[in-house]
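Regression test attached.
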Amino acid sequence: MTKHSPILEVSHLHISFPKGDERIQVVRDLSFKVERGRTLAIVGESGSGKTISSLASMGLLPKGIARIDQGSIRYSGLEEGLEHLDESAWCGLRGKHIAMIFQNPMSSLNPSLRVGDQVFEMLEQHQQEENPSARKKKVLQLFEEVKLPSPESTYRKYPHELSGGQKQRIMIAMALACDPDVIIADEPTTALDVSVQKSILSLLRHLLKERNAGMIFISHDLDVVSEIADDVLVMYRGEAMEYGLAEEVLLRPKTAYTKGLIACKPPLSNLPERLPTVEDFIAAEKSGEAVVFHPQKKGTHHHLLLEVKGLRKTYPTSKTLLGKVKSSFTAVDSIDFSIFRGETLGLVGESGCGKSTVSRLIMGLLEADAGEVNYEGKNLLSASKAEWKVLRRKFQLIFQDPFSALNPRKTVGQCLDEVMAYHHLHGNRQERKLHALKLLRQVGLDESAWDKYPHAFSGGQRQRIVIARALAVEPEFIICDESVSALDVSVQAQVLNLLNDLKDQYGLTFLFISHDLSVVHYMSDRICVMEKGEIVELGNANQVFHHPQDPYTKRLIASIPKQVLH
Amino acid sequence: MSYLIQRLSYGFLVLLGVVFLVFTLFSLVPDPARELAGQNESPEVIEAIRKKHRLDLPYFPRLGYFLNDLSPISYNSTIEGEASFIDLNSISELRLFEGEGQVLILKSPYLGRSFLSDRSVSAILADALPGTAVLALAAIIIAMLFGIALGVLTALNKDTWIDHLTMVLASLGMSGPSFFMAILIAWFGGTLIYDQVLIPIWPIVFVLLFFGLKKYWAGARQFSLMKENSFLIGLLSGLAVWFVLIALKVPGGIMYLRLPGTGLSATGSLYEVDVWEGKKLSLVNLILPAITLGIRPLAVIIQLTRSSLLEVMQEDYIRTAYAKGLSRQQVIWKHAIRNALNPVITAASGWFASMLAGAVFVEFVFGWKGIGFEVFQALEKNDLPVVMGAVLVIASTFVIINILVDLIYGWLDPRARVV
């Protein structure tokens, strides 16, 4: 590619994990180079081996479990290959020459130490600067560089006093403290809101250019990658699928997997009726036909189903001695909207804007302070317990985390049977089972799933089970609260397609809640944008997305990473 | 600050509840007047005793007068023989208002006098409290020091024989009933190894031998069973040899390592009364009861420290610490231990209060003069004022310590700061 000599070079790396008596290969024959001033993005879905291979370059593979079987990792400052390094040599290298930024800034900082001291420790460990006061000055200077507000007071704060974005800035300051040659960033923006993600990405790019360091940027999100990467390595099941210059790989992908990965994310314009999946591309490659797109048509609906009027919810932040509320935080501030039968209303906003509170208020899982939720003319907030039992059947909620939404001690069959039996649906036990099996087929699962436990399934499959459970009671209205946020993009496309199919088939109405604007745009007929507990914009999906009126919506849409062209 | 006031007022309610409960329970048992009269059984004497201790009054007035005595501000009579009489000579008070034979006074809570000895309950408790406090403190210090040390040791040597052995001993310590443990330790420490400690020499020799062989076999592939369990195999074979030699009556078969004995007596108090020297402090007596009282919290602290440290070692910020280039030792001591100890210290401080309650048994078995000892005696004689006083002291300690624990937790874990 370029004539520069690489600072980090991985060649023919094989890594394995034990499974029973055998060892399974999690990384096979992986080679890549990191050069000064360039960013290499490693892209792949969960389980593709992208994190493991980066941990290997840090000497942080789980001890006694993961093993490097073959291959070498060479760092330019060192004669010896890193795979042979002993622990004390690693201690001199980690942080000083190769530094890492982790995925989750919330849990990656020690909760009981001041953030300044945690960065200070990095300098102290590698004997940077002469004395403590010089080190402290350096920390403050780093805080200035990563654009943290008032470095002096931030120095003395504990992690829980900072926002997610600020914590990630601390992590970046820590990684850059000793001016390392290589920085490994493992999904550094995945846990953050889009607008924060945008600023973190531009900060990283700027600081790397300044220091002329190389970076390995690990991500599952191709759009983010297209913003930051010079080179791209696509991994699938432990192997490199494609490796080359970013423009080459992203604009002219050669393998079906990469093509699918790029196409399965909802595009910003020219929405297809169904999202293409990786499987579509692999099948198309085999048969030699091209993948066909049908343009999507957004509908308009007129029959009012659910009406929210002046809904309000506050949480007390401090109380007087007698339990009287002194001050409170308004999570949802007198909002109004309505949902028409057969439509999908998208609800978007950044974390903390109150969108999940809205869903819980509608479901009756939280008590509202004021307002009305009218479902076909009946106010839910004043409904009795008996009325709710009937209503619960018509209302279903699909949660974000498919791992915690299923009881691990119940089989899939018990799970589905339980809800039907509770609402006395579908006759006796035998008939219920027949119906459940039909549902499992409909959500794309095998009938053999009936007597398996949830742990036997992947995240995407579990979300299908959750969907089947929601459908088992023949609901009219389904709230999807970040239902696809925890899934890989290719799985996300499948689940979104499934939701749309079922909507047509059963005549469902959706309230689709997400922080991801492009997904909401694809799914919804109308979009409702929330900020700080208030609705700032509500309108037809295309209208809101392409011609936003409110400054907040404009900002939100501007921070979506510009997409890879199809 | 408002949090503190809230907690204090809850504590006050708890104490009120305790008073009510103990008082009600005692109103159900036959009154001790007859017993107090001793051999002088004339009805006049018994009636006088009943009147003196307000035992002649119905339940509610009696409770009312009792609460009046406890209250810092009270309205009392100065005429002896009246129900609300208080002997102003026996307390130090601030008179707020004086009337004819009546006073409104500000005083410290008045706990009355013992039915039995007629001594002021406050004086009895003041005498007994240091003994119990020292005992509980020593026990919790033993438990914390050894518990945390052993807990960290087992966590860092997870799945080795150190870990297994300590965990077995810890579950023994936790499951042994306290009265049984007390008697066992008193007998073992105070009698069995009083003069000298005899340790059979063969098991030690064999354990050392097998450890030596382990090093020698280090390169060999076979003997894996021997290598992994060298301590246990050495110990068992040593014991076997020892028994065989005893059984065969081989001269010199019973070889002992002779260590000096403990020289500890099975009973004793913080202050020993000597005929010639009078009252003197003897801290040696503390050792056995403190171990007994501390053994259960010790076992719990070991397990808690171990599991907490193992959990913390899996946290993301531990990986961050490694990524900084810190060595394993540094990661453990600078980042893991403090976070792991938060729940341990909170739990242990909470136990300090329950140690006071647990002390009752231990004090009885070891004849240690403390609150528990007094309660035990008072219970036997239905001596309500003493029992009530002791229960109130223990309950107040609970309340105060629980508030302190919250503050300690806030200090350790910045996320939990409340005040």
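Expected vs. actual: identical. Chain A has 20 helices and 19 strands.
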